[in-house]
Here is the input.
Amino acid sequence: MVGGIGGCLAQRGARGVPSDARLRARRCAVTALGIALEITPPRERRPELLLRRARLLGGCASSVHVIQRPARQTSLEASIDLERAGISAVWHVTNRGRGAAEIEAEIERAARSGLSAALVVRGESGPEDRKDTPALRTLVARIRSALPGARIGVTMNPYLEPERALPNLWPKLEAGATFVQTQPVFAASTLCGVGERIRQRAPGVSILPMVIPIVSAVAAERLALRLRLPLPGRFAATLASGGEPGGWTLFSQTLRGLRGSGVADGLAVMTQEMDPPAAFAERIRLALRESGWA
Here is the structure.
């Protein structure tokens, strides 16, 4: 079981436990970053559907990340719609297969619209990069210049060895990124090694692990195949024997482990279904409250 203080702090032992002052600082960071909900926008502009998805977690979510996907309302336009509705939005900026002029036009529109948060990502599979496709670190620097004071994030794969993951991360942080969002994690131990390295080199940068509730063996298999992520061995056994209640137990254990780990300053919550039922959303909120995140 991964829960309570049994995350990275316990694994480091007494010598590695942060001071009370550092723990208080990290708790303040958690409060500031809070819970983000990651949603998929509609296929076309439908404000009522967008708002329904954005309000899934109610007051538990302090911001809403809008995924950029082909054949859907763009993350930029959806983020602008959310901001106009009074919802703090995080615009996803992708560079895969895109030219500099196209991205620059988006940045200028974001600046004119008053957006104040962005996540810079490669984007899903698509066309090959162009000769003028800007590097992610270049985009971070450009957005930092165009949106002064904005929260700018980048992504990281915590399943890679730190020696592979971190050399790609440092230039983006040096360019002005202030938070790191990870791929979905299912145990606090996944973040320990790489999270501690980030803490040491960039103590002002926040770490935002993504979490996804998985409540069936079929859902677990589908997610593992789609994201090419290794799921802990206990997941299959627990879901096989415990069904949906077992899945919620696993989700709660993950949340508690991250809350006590010392390497998570908030959470990015995503659901496998674009429009899960109200009971599913309430169960997420309950897990967030019981684990101390909300």
Q: What stands out?
A: The longest helix spans residues 233-259. The radius of gyration is 19 Å.
